[in-house]
Structures are given as structure tokens and as C-alpha cells.
Amino acid sequence: MTIETNFTEKERALLKRADDANQLPEMMEAVNDLEIENVQALLAAYIACRIDEISRAAPDIMSGAELLRTFLKIKNDWTEEEMGHLRKEMEYAKKMDPSVY
């Protein structure tokens, strides 16, 4: 699923403006509150495409997670120590099986 093939030009323009303004999470919250189902579906599909793009473009899983948290405006509530342990676990997993992620 790609943005170019799954959305009309008008839809892409609207969603790109919201994306460029970093307003997609707020827009999704608003249409959910207003129960505008067709726009909910449109936004959900667009956000899914963006998540896929961001994940694939990231150099590693830890960077990808940080980029996704930024995109979705999700606070990372893990401590630096916890993140350090996770980073080591991810490095070990990658060393044991290079295709793990």
C-alpha cells in the first residue's frame, strides 16, 4: 500500500498539509470525536502508509521506534537506563539473527 496509489490527488493534498503541519494525530482525534467514518478510514489508511514508510526508512529498529514516536506524538516513558538495556538486547538479537528485524 502506497500513498501515491491509494489516495486521490485531493486526498493526498489534504493529508500532506496535515502531515506537514504535524497535525495528523490531532486530526484523527477530531474526526473520531465527530464520528466522521469516511475521514476516519482515510486518515487511518494514510497513517498506516506513513508508519510503513517511516519504519522501512529507519536505519535500525531503535531509530525507527523513535521516529514513529515523534510522528505519532507518543512520549517515551522509558528511562535512559531502560533504553540502554533495550538497545543492547536489540543489538544481541541482530547479532544472533541478522534477519530478526
From TrEMBL:
- Domain of life the protein comes from: Eukaryota
Might you name a Gene Ontology BP term for this protein? ubiquitin-dependent protein catabolic process
Per its UniProt record, what InterPro entries does this chain match?
SKP1-like_dim_sf, SKP1/BTB/POZ_sf
Which Gene3D superfamilies does its entry note? Potassium Channel Kv1.1, Chain A
| Entry protein name | Skp1 family, dimerisation domain containing protein, putative
Task: Look up and give the organism this protein is from.
Answer: Angomonas deanei
